[in-house]
Design goal:
By secondary structure, this protein is of the alpha+beta class. It has helices spanning about 5-20, 35-50, 110-130, 150-155, 205-225, 270-285, 310-320, 335-340, 365-385, and strands at about 50-60, 60-70, 70-80, 100, 105, 135-140, 165, 175-180, 180-190, 235-245, 255-260, 290-300, 300-305, 330, 345-350, 355, 365. It contains nine helices and 17 strands. The protein binds zinc ion. Zinc ion binds near residues 82, 145 and 168.
Length: about 375
């Protein structure tokens, strides 16, 4: 292939990225956010010859977009990686970027600075070859994926692209689907009274117990449903439970936040309806039972057809790069891919091999980062034409 990835550049860039602390401040007080790493990425893209723009959806929360224009008339493709990380509690060497046995260590190495370095390496290879494609390539380093995804959400209306590759780690599998989720808060209402006065008190915690009993039944039922071929069956868990004020007081209220993981095909209104039905049933059976529920956050599931052109372009790129047919699969966590797909952008996910996302020891396999860079170059050349 004429367009070669500069291996040393990719490894050095990844090391630099890992050494920059970019902990998401919404997850950890004092986390610096993306300002410094965005500055680094912007300078790297500019040095490579891309046209760079930065966006700041909130002060200090910065996304970077580099644009490489090919000849006129082709399609536009966005490569997307988040630049923020989770915290580093318990990590012996969070910002070392040390390399041992072909692995590069540190917070974000795997989730997902390895992917960002591969994108920068692919952009450099294509720019050095004078952008031998039609259409345009956008390199997006985004803010805040680990919390509320304000980075990608902010970019979507600004950049109309035909397709996107989200480079979250997948062990170089072509990821065609992931789950979504809904947070549903249920509050049961009681009446506070002295613990010695059952004639006056109504116990909100025991009412919540009834809700939990019904949820346990629903949870078993969900796991028995027909699984999605790539992400399995839907599920729920009772994430946070708070109720009552003191041992000798009848609990006036009790609050539970359920997390319901949705598989492709399920909708927010459908999963809300399941909870509403269960509450209605309890209220019919017990006239003292009072409960309300509301949706506090929802993220849609993601799915793309194996026949989509961006999927085919990536699959062929993987086969050419690895010398073996592409493996297709699904992932369980939610990713920015769902936002892009919901906005009508044909989207697929592929990223490197490694371990320890959000854990005390995190590393990325360097060979897979270099292979990803090669895949991104080939996929761009094919998709952008
Ligand atoms: Zn991630």
């Amino acid at each position: 292939m004429v367009t070669q990835v500069d291996r040393q550049y990719v490894v050095r860039t990844l090391q630099d990225l890992v050494r920059i602390n970019s902990i998401n401040p919404a997850l950890e007080a004092g986390g610096p956010g993306e300002a410094e790493i965005a500055g680094y990425v912007a300078r790297a893209l500019e040095a490579t010859g891309l046209h760079v723009t930065t966006h700041e959806p909130e002060r200090g929360r910065v996304s970077v977009v580099g644009r490489l224009e090919g000849r006129a008339g082709g399609r536009s493709l966005m490569l997307n990686a988040h630049m923020d990380t989770v915290g580093v509690a318990g990590m012996p060497e969070p910002f070392s970027g040390a390399v041992r046995d072909g692995k590069l260590f540190g917070r974000g190495a795997y989730d997902m600075k390895g992917s960002l370095a591969a994108m920068l390496g692919a952009a450099k290879a294509l720019a050095d070859a004078k952008a031998p494609f039609k259409g345009s390539l956008l390199i997006a380093g985004v803010a805040d994926e680990e919390n509320a995804s304000m980075g990608t959400a902010d970019l979507i209306p600004r950049y109309a692209v035909n397709a996107a590759i989200v480079t979250e780690p997948t062990h170089l599998d072509v990821c065609l689907a992931h789950k979504g989720f809904a947070w549903i808060e249920v509050t049961t209402e009681g009446r506070a009274a002295h613990g010695s006065r059952p004639d006056l008190g109504v116990d909100a915690n025991l009412a919540m117990g009834q809700v939990l009993g019904r949820l346990a039944r629903l949870e078993r039922e969900l796991r028995a449903r027909k699984p999605h071929p790539l992400v399995g069956p839907p599920s729920l868990h009772a994430g946070v439970l708070r109720g009552g004020s003191a041992p000798s007081v009848y609990a006036a209220s009790s609050t539970l936040t359920i997390e319901r993981r949705m598989i492709p095909g399920e909708t927010e209104s459908q999963v809300l309806r399941e909870v509403a039905d269960l509450i209605d049933e309890l209220a019919r059976a017990d006239t003292q039972f009072r409960a309300a529920h509301r949706l506090t956050l929802a993220r849609e599931p993601f799915e793309v057809s194996r026949d989509a052109e961006i999927v085919q372009a990536v699959a062929r790129a993987v086969e050419a790069e690895l010398g073996a047919p592409a493996r297709f699969g699904g992932q369980t966590p939610w990713m920015d891919s769902a936002l892009l797909a919901a906005a009508g952008v044909e989207t697929v996910v592929i990223g490197p091999t490694g371990a320890g996302a959000h854990a005390a020891e995190e590393w990325v396999d360097l060979e897979s980062v270099l292979q990803l860079a090669g895949v991104l170059v080939r996929a761009t050349l094919e998709y952008c034409g």
